Amino acid sequence: MGKQGWVYEKVNGKKYKFYYKNNEKVTDLTNILKLKKNGSNKMYIEVNRAAAVVTFYLYDSETKKYDIPIKSATVSVGRDVSTVAGAGALNIYSSFTPIGNYSVCSNGAAVRYSLKPMHEPDGSTVYARWCTHIVGNVYFHAIAVHAQSHYALSSSSYNKLGGPASAGCIRMTVADAKWLYTYAPTGTKVSILKGNKAKPGPYGKPATIKISGINYDPTDPDVPDSRKKKDYKAKKMTGYMKKNGTKVGYK
Alpha-carbon distance 217 to 228, whole Å? Predict the structure, then answer.
């Protein structure tokens, strides 16, 4: 039968509590843990800046630690690895994701936006979905679009997921940013670490989708599955996520 259910295992010297189904490790425990939307999930968020990976953990009442990895997300972090501007003073001279311990929406501003205008250094305005405040001008958010539309995404920006590319915020897919917005309560601890590119986290570094010739996020639940399926067959993207969360073409 192989592994079934909960199993404690070590990854890179640290012990975690994983869930197996038919000997396969489940890498998204949202439903298994029965997480509550906008509820009181006791979570911890860790950002591995070097690897450009975010891992979400749930508190384990047995070990008294945040050692149950809920899921991981591949992201884009700030282009700079150092700054003189300070964590709360990001500006045209600084594209830095600050290292430190923060928390969701409780560092002086309890802020979440389903759609937030953001001003670029060149004076233009972009729009970011599912924004969750961390510190200063730094947010978790979906990759910004150039208009208030699901169909205004830059493919070049999307294809940079997995490395340094932002002005300091932590860019995510629509699916991952919306998940964080929905399940991470205000006050959830956020640790941004320098990290290690070779050790992205207990689930490794999740695969990313590459797109060409389309102007939307393939994980966006508001884009019809039929359109995604058609563009996937036309090889305009290497994978997509259905409205129900099922992944096609990638894991």
Answer: 9
DSSP reduced 3-state for 158: helix
- Per-residue pLDDT reduced to its tens digit, 35-44: 999 888 999 9
Residue 9 near residue 16 (C-beta atoms within 8 A): yes
CB 174 within 8 A of CB 182: no
CB-based burial label for 222 (10 Å; 0-12, 13-18, 19+): exposed
- 5 phi/psi in degrees, rounded to 5: 75, -155
Any bridge partners for residue 74, and if so which?
53
204-247: pLDDT as tens digits:
999 999 999 999 999 999 999 999 999 999 999 999 999 999 99
Tell me if the pTM is above 0.70: yes
Indicate the pairing of strand 240-241 with strand 247-248. antiparallel
